[in-house]
Design goal:
single chain, Transferase, Pyrimidine Nucleoside Phosphorylase, Chain A, domain 3, two-stranded parallel sheet, Glycosyl_Trfase_fam3_N_dom_sf, Thymidine phosphorylase, glycosyltransferase
Length: 156
């Protein structure tokens, strides 16, 4: 095997009294457990930027870094730009959506509400006049109206 300096690293000759025990750093190769290297965020960005397909694990690492706030904003922006420029295959989109969905608090509803849950999605803003009358009208008809999807809740 190679050392960092490029030279050869030789295993001592145990027959010549060179030892070879674990204390010297020479373990039995059968005992070695190879760990998969952790993919770095810059590697993921580079992979997507260069047209590669992200694996489920790549996407999971990225989403967890974003939601765990262990990634720089500029790296999040770089990844999203790479995704926007290169696109995603359906498998990537499916995994990305699933990981985003399960990254936060998942709401659940009683079984008796099945078929009654509705949501009026809005991007918000000053011009949204529909939600104001639609949500109460749907509730009056027996629907259960969820209004957590507004992107601008302080305005609407």
């Amino acid at each position: 095997s190679q050392t960092r300096g490029g030279g050869k690293k030789e295993k001592p000759d145990t027959a010549a009294g060179g030892g070879g025990g674990g204390a010297l750093g020479w373990e039995d190769p059968a005992k070695e457990v190879e760990e998969a290297p952790m993919t770095s965020i810059p590697d993921l960005i580079r992979k997507k930027r260069d047209g590669g397909q992200l694996t489920d694990e790549d996407i999971r690492v990225f989403i967890r870094a974003v939601t765990g706030k262990t990634i720089q904003d500029c790296q999040t922006g770089a990844m999203l730009m790479a995704i926007w420029q290169r696109g995603m295959v359906p498998a990537e989109t499916n995994t990305f959506t699933r990981e985003m969905m399960s990254s936060g608090e998942v709401m659940s509803w009683p079984d008796e509400w099945r078929g009654l849950m509705v949501d009026k999605h809005s991007t918000g803003g000053v011009g949204d006049k529909v939600s104001l009358v639609l949500a109460p009208a749907l509730a009056a008809c027996g629907c259960k109206v969820n209004r957590d999807s507004n992107m601008s809740p302080c305005v609407t």
